[in-house]
Write a structure and sequence with these properties.
Blueprint: H1 23-26, H2 39-49, H3 57-64, H4 68-77, H5 91-105, H6 111-140, H7 150-185, H8 190-194, E1 195-205, H9 208-214, H10 217-237, E2 241-245, E3 249-254, H11 257-272, E4 280-292, E5 295-297, H12 299-310, E6 315-318, H13 320-328, H14 336-348, E7 358-362, E8 366-368, E9 372-374, E10 377-381
Helix pairs in contact: 2-7, 3-5, 4-6, 10-11
Length: 387
């Protein structure tokens, strides 16, 4: 194993421990991460990591008692660039390597699973860190007085924020872990823990590509942020889970079709009442879904995506399995004729008629690329359904 096969110059706990935008660092230049290049960056790094650079990747791996190959896999999985022979790693990097390797040695995790843990943690925290620097800290470090530089205010603000943000991150992670663990232990069997029956929905802004050509970058960024924020809040408030956002599109899941349907219709209703937002279309499917690293995969997900692409503006399309599920649970009648018959029968008997939340209208069958012929249903909210 050559030194070029080492891991990155970053903390194995997911924090940056070398200037992240250094081109020479990404090429593995040994001098790129040596002290003296950027004093402020080095001071910030030491503040955030709480330790000085002491090890090259080879030295860190040896100190942790793991092979260079395994150390490289862990570092790359966390998303850090190779740094050659640079002395850029700290005691925290050594400890993280030792802990991951220890979990493997104890038989608690396979080596492949440990790499997945590193990758999922790295991907999630990398996005969070980028957002905090680009959107949060950037605004806070605007020079408060004429003549002051951003450099002069960045360090003390980071010093004040760091412990608070760290504690909040751990709190949210524990909350999310508890919620996810609760869902897993309630699964009917072991197979359902991985391949579960879920309702999956895509919500897509109509005409977004055209908007990108007409709007200024800052204005477009504000629109995307408003859309993602609104969608995330609605999904969470109604009991769904936001899987990911893709700028003009969000993917969410729910344990039951009724919850997913309510979220979809509320998204359409909310966006249609906002004059600054483009029209929205939603596609949903219900069925077996494979979950990996917080994402969802499988035919059900693909079908929901295809239905989104053919959905009318400000409307929700669902597949036949989704329609069958909301009928089975009593959230929608099998047909309006059946609902009318039930109402008449209930009136004759002096009873209250069934109250349905949603209505379903069958659409024309159509071929969908890669999935054959599908029968979409238009999902709407019934006037008599409780909101």
């Amino acid at each position: 194993m050559t030194v070029d096969d080492t891991g990155s110059g970053a903390g194995a706990d997911g924090r940056v421990d070398h200037p992240p935008h250094s081109a020479s660092a990404e090429r593995g230049d040994p001098q790129a991460t040596e002290p003296g290049d950027d004093p402020l960056a080095l001071r910030l790094e030491q503040l955030i990591l709480g330790a000085e650079r002491r090890y090259t990747p080879f030295q860190a791996a040896r100190s942790a008692g793991v092979s260079m190959e395994l150390a490289s896999r862990f570092w790359r999985a966390m998303g850090f660039a190779d740094i050659g022979q640079a002395k850029a790693l700290t005691e925290a990097d050594v400890l993280a390597l030792r802990r991951l390797a220890g979990l493997v040695e104890a038989g608690l995790l396979s080596e492949a699973m440990a790499v997945q843990v590193a990758r999922s943690t790295g991907q999630t925290t990398a996005r969070l860190a980028e957002w905090q620097i680009d959107s949060f800290l950037e605004g806070l470090t605007e020079p408060p007085e004429p003549g002051m530089t951003r450099t002069e205010v960045t360090y003390p603000i980071v010093e004040l924020l760091l412990p608070e943000l760290e504690e909040f991150l751990v709190y949210v992670w524990r909350r999310q872990l508890a919620a996810s663990a609760g869902r897993v232990v309630q699964a009917a069997d072991d197979e359902e823990m991985v391949d579960r029956r879920l309702a999956v929905g895509f919500a897509d802004l109509v005409g977004f590509t055209r908007l990108t050509r007409r709007m200024e970058e800052e204005e477009l960024g504000e629109l995307v942020e408003a859309f993602e924020t609104t969608a995330a809040d609605l999904v969470a408030a109604r009991g769904g889970r936001l899987i990911k956002t893709l700028g003009d599109e969000v993917l969410y899941a729910a344990d039951d079709a009724g919850t997913a349907a309510d979220i979809a219709l509320r998204l359409v209703e909310t966006m249609s009442n906002d004059e600054t937002m483009p029209e929205l279309r939603v596609g949903m499917a219900f069925g077996t879904v494979t979950t990996r690293m917080g994402d969802v995969f499988g035919t059900t997900v693909n079908l929901a995506s295809r239905l989104t692409s053919i959905a009318p503006r400000d409307a929700v399309l669902v597949d036949s399995a989704f329609a069958e599920e909301v009928i089975r649970t009593g959230d929608a009648p099998a047909s309006e004729a059946e609902a009318a018959e039930e109402a008449v029968a209930a009136e004759k008997e002096g009873k209250e008629p069934p109250v349905y939340r949603f209505a379903l209208q069958p659409m024309w069958q159509r071929p969908v690329r890669g999935l054959g012929v599908v029968e979409p249903w238009l999902l709407t909210r019934r006037d008599d359904g409780a909101r």
